[in-house]
Design a protein that fits this description.
Strand order of the largest sheet: 2-3-1-4-5-9-6
Number of strands: 35
Helix content: 25-40%
Oligomer: single chain
Low-confidence stretches: none
Largest sheet: 7 strands, mixed
GO molecular function, one term: translation elongation factor activity
Structural class: alpha+beta
Mean pLDDT: 93
Distance between the termini: 80 Å
Number of helices: 16
Radius of gyration: 30 Å
Pfam families: EF-G_D2, EFG_C, EFG_III, EFG_IV, GTP_EFTU
Strand content: 25-35%
Keywords: Elongation factor, GTP-binding, Nucleotide-binding, Protein biosynthesis
InterPro entries: EF-G-like_DII, EFG_II, EFG_III/V, EFG_IV, EFG_V, EFG_V-like, P-loop_NTPase, Ribosomal_Su5_D2-typ_SF
Protein name: Elongation factor G
Shape: globular
């Protein structure tokens, strides 16, 4: 039997804003635990977490890295802790979000000198939505000028009274004081006794019997509080705060003790959300004796090894020579020996139990979100999808070298398979391939990886903006298509009406033809003609959305009415209706969040206004920083990364997400319409 059954497994994702010290924290934990003999630094590029050449070059994480350490409970029971170091900058949020599905606890790391930042809030919210246990690590607490008392106040204001310290820095900031077991000590701020009391009282509220004993005796042995504490974590009733100085190796053993002693194992945490193909819930149980079910949360395409899939084992046991299937695939693959990761190193193990995080290589069918299972489980199972930000920024891409078109397509597919916030679109009308991501910087990093890792140089240019067209009023259209060229001719007549639908409703086609005015077998031809117009647009050549088209009458000829005739008639009738339906051009509007020093607020808001943007809110952050939220047309953000850097002297950052599609100004619509020439319909 393995010495690390499910009860002895902990899984923790280190998340938070960029440069808070997550990679250094994982390095320090591994060093203090004895996993590594020498401690690396981000500056030297020799950490376990940042081993990728591009990460070494830019000086921060770009991908999620997995490592593990082995520790012991107070009674000597061995515990294995899996750690995931995630990137913190908004451009890499796809990697950080994907890591949430591999863990039971999210550890949000905060830089004490900067306080709550943009990704701090986002990761706290995403972890909450994912029903994960949360804790906060305040790193760099020993830096000069840090107001730890004020930072704790701000944390409680931002995330609620459930935020409570589990330990405190001592008076000289040379070590931390455990406030769970102890009520004595001289802390840098706050009272150890009051912090101990507040934390214990919050925990005992989870169990009536323990609460009653606490009220009667005025105290309770902390050793019996594991079950109510894990329940409090599971329900979000408590968010512990721990203090560390990773660079100076302060609080490392204390944090490992917290992981081992207080965090839930897979049997104690909230169950993951899996569903069957029919939409009903599929319950998993962290039981090694059940059928295997693992979820792929990350894919890496290595130019030498091939495709690598990182997975979390939720159920069953994987051993040497286990045979597994991917999703609904019928072709099995064999795991020669299970592999755990320690940074870039792969370590073979004899078996994996529920809770393990492992890797499998050279299985081409694996994609992000794939389910690995044995034959005892039917296919069609999937995990609840994460709400990744929609990739909105685009660059039209083409290979620098003629003949590399096919290779470019293959490499782009590999990039998209690694990053759920990337997308590739092929615009047939414009004959261009568009790579979309979260920002210009995001895409530039992807292109740089394609050049360095796959030796593929790419040319870029600004793509067409993803405008949409719609209508603002109902209207009717009619067309008769008649063509005689000798012999059998073409005849079809169509009457239809168009109506606007709410934003996001898409396209609906309704057949209300009575009495066989158009034979039922020719109705699909009418719809085909309608769809041709929807795809090619009416005003400026952009797809038409949010419209209902109802065909209600027509005429046909028993000899000359063919499919091609009703395709043409449907297309012409659609164009006739659109001309009367107040056609409208829509542009994508994005929500923007900008974090920058408050001294630059005037410049930022003024620049946003010049881009037809609106400020919808501002919030003062710690360290003289300001959070500005607003809405702005996507077209207004062309080159914004460089502009924000110039405005804030490199101290600003931003992120965007799609908010809505709204009508463009009349002048913009007129300009775009004047440049568009629709092909005239033949009579």
């Amino acid at each position: 039997m393995s010495q690390y059954p499910v009860e002895n497994i902990r899984t923790v994702a280190l998340v938070g804003h960029g440069s808070t010290g997550k990679t250094t924290l994982m390095e320090a934990l591994l060093y203090r635990n004895g996993v590594i003999k020498e401690i690396g630094t981000v500056e030297k590029g020799n950490t376990v977490g940042d081993f990728d050449p591009m990460e070494k070059e830019v000086g921060h994480s770009l991908r999620t890295t997995v490592a593990h350490l082995n520790a012991q409970k107070d009674d000597g029971t061995p515990v294995r802790v899996f750690l995931l170091d995630t990137p913190g900058y908004p451009d890499c949020v796809g990697q950080a979000l994907g890591a949430l599905d591999a863990v039971k606890t999210v550890c949000v790391v905060i830089d004490a000198t900067k306080g709550i930042e943009l990704m701090t809030r986002r990761m706290m919210q995403w972890a909450k939505e994912r029903n994960l246990c949360r804790m906060i690590v305040v790193n760099k607490f020993d830096q000069p000028g840090v107001d730890l008392a004020q930072l704790l106040i701000e944390l409680r204001e931002a995330f609620g009274n459930e935020v409570l310290p589990l330990n405190l820095p001592n008076k000289d900031c040379t070590h931390v004081i455990d406030c769970f077991d102890n009520d004595k000590g001289e802390a840098n701020f706050a009272s150890v006794e009051r912090v101990h009391q507040a934390f214990i009282e919050r925990v005992v509220e989870m169990d009536d019997e323990t609460m009653e004993r606490y009220l009667e005796e005025g105290a309770v042995d902390p050793k019996i509080l594991h079950a109510p504490l894990t329940k409090a974590l599971r329900l979000g009733h408590i968010i512990p705060v721990c203090y560390t100085s990773a660079k100076n190796l302060i609080g490392m053993r204390d944090l490992i003790k917290v992981f081992v002693r207080h965090l839930p194992n897979p049997t104690e945490a909230n169950a993951p959300l899996f569903y069957k193909a029919d939409g009903s819930e599929y319950m998993t149980f962290p039981d090694a004796n059940r059928p295997v079910l693992a979820h792929v949360f990350k894919v890496v395409n290595d130019p030498y090894i091939g495709k690598i899939g990182l997975f979390r084992l939720h159920q069953g046991r994987i051993t040497k020579d286990s045979t597994l299937y991917v999703d609904d695939g019928k072709k099995p693959f064999k795991i020669t020996r299970p592999i755990m990761l320690q940074g870039k190193e792969g370590l073979e193990v004899d078996e994996m139990n529920p809770g393990y995080i492992g890797a499998v290589a050279k299985v081409e069918d694996i994609t992000y979100g794939s389910i690995l299972h044995d034959s005892a489980i039917e296919g069609g199972i999937y995990m609840k999808k994460l709400n990744f930000p929609k990739p909105m920024f685009g660059l039209a891409v083409s290979p620098a070298k003629r003949g590399d078109e096919s290779r470019m397509s293959e490499v782009l597919d590999k990039m998209v398979s690694e990053d759920p916030t990337l997308a590739v679109e092929h615009d047939v009308v414009m004959n261009e391939t568009v790579l979309r991501g979260l920002s210009e910087q995001h895409l530039r990093m992807v292109l740089k990886r394609m050049a360095s890792q796959f030796k593929l140089e790419i040319q870029t240019r600004t793509p067409r903006v993803p405008y949409r067209e719609t209508i603002a009023a109902p209207a009717e259209g009619h067309a008769r298509h008649k063509k005689q060229t000798g012999g059998a001719g073409q005849f079809g007549e169509v009457f239809l009406r168009v109506e606007p639908l709410p934003r996001g409703a898409g396209f609906k086609f309704v057949d209300q033809v009575k009495g066989g005015a158009i034979p039922y077998n020719l109705i699909p031809a009418v719809e085909k003609g309608v769809r041709e117009v929807l795809d090619s647009g009416f005003i400026a050549g952009y797809p038409i959305h949010d419209i209902r088209v109802t065909v209600y009458d027509g005429k046909y000829h028993p000899v000359d009415s063919k499919e091609v005739a009703f395709v043409a008639a449907g297309r012409k009738a659609m164009l006739d209706a659109l001309a009367k339906a107040q056609p409208t051009l829509l542009e994508p509007i994005v929500r923007i969040e900008i974090e920058a020093p408050d001294s630059f607020m005037g410049d930022i808001t003024g620049d946003l206004a010049s881009r037809r943007g609106q400020v919808t809110g501002t919030e003062n952050l710690t360290g003289g920083m300001m959070l500005i939220t607003g809405r702005v047309p996507l077209t207004g953000l062309d080159g914004y990364a460089n502009r924000l850097n110039a405005l804030t002297q490199g101290a600003g950052s931003y992120s965007v997400e799609l908010l809505a599609y709204e009508p463009v100004p009349a002048s913009v619509q007129a300009d775009l319409a004047s440049k568009y020439q629709r092909k005239d319909e033949e009579d």
